[in-house]
Design brief:
This protein is of the alpha+beta class and about 200 residues long. The chain is built from 4 helices and 6 strands. The protein has a domain at about 145-200: Nucleotide Exchange Factor Grpe, Chain A, domain 2 (Roll).
Length: about 200
Amino acid sequence: MEKNIKNQEVDEEIANENIGEQETAADEEKESAEKKENAATTEETKELTPEEKIAELKKQIEDLKNQQLYKVAEFDNFRKRVMQEKAELIKNGGSKVITTLLPIVDDLERAQQNMDKYEDVNAVKEGLNLIIDKFFKLLAQEGLKKMDVVGKPFDADYHEAIAMVPGQPDDQKGKVMDCMTAGYTLNDKVIRYAKVAVAE
């Protein structure tokens, strides 16, 4: 019986030693994990020295300067390209209209070359009228319209009064009596005002 009690005491001591060892291992593990966590936190929250802060800020300023210079250069290139395209348009903008008018120039040159051959003045007039009609048709295709002004009320948006005609009936007052110089619109925008005489 005494032997059994002694064996039991020995077993308990061994069990207690095992528990103690396990607790010590757990404590060591826990302590190691805490140390690692503290080291990581310290590294994250490690404060920069004033010199390091200045160096970092200088680097940021340099990066921003480079970005700004890049943007300025990019905008300058864009501005130059737009100006060049605009100059090109102004320089060659009329080429389409001139190309359209070249057949009229050809007709006028042919009429001029053959004018002396024709003895019939009416034939020359007819040819010239055909060329003029063709010319106005081409202009109309480009959006040019001649203003129809005679008999219409005077409108300062379209007409320029250069003379007043006195002694007209009441129903004619303020209306255009005569047109000295034709007015034109291009795509509904006035490009030349009609010079007119208005009833007083």
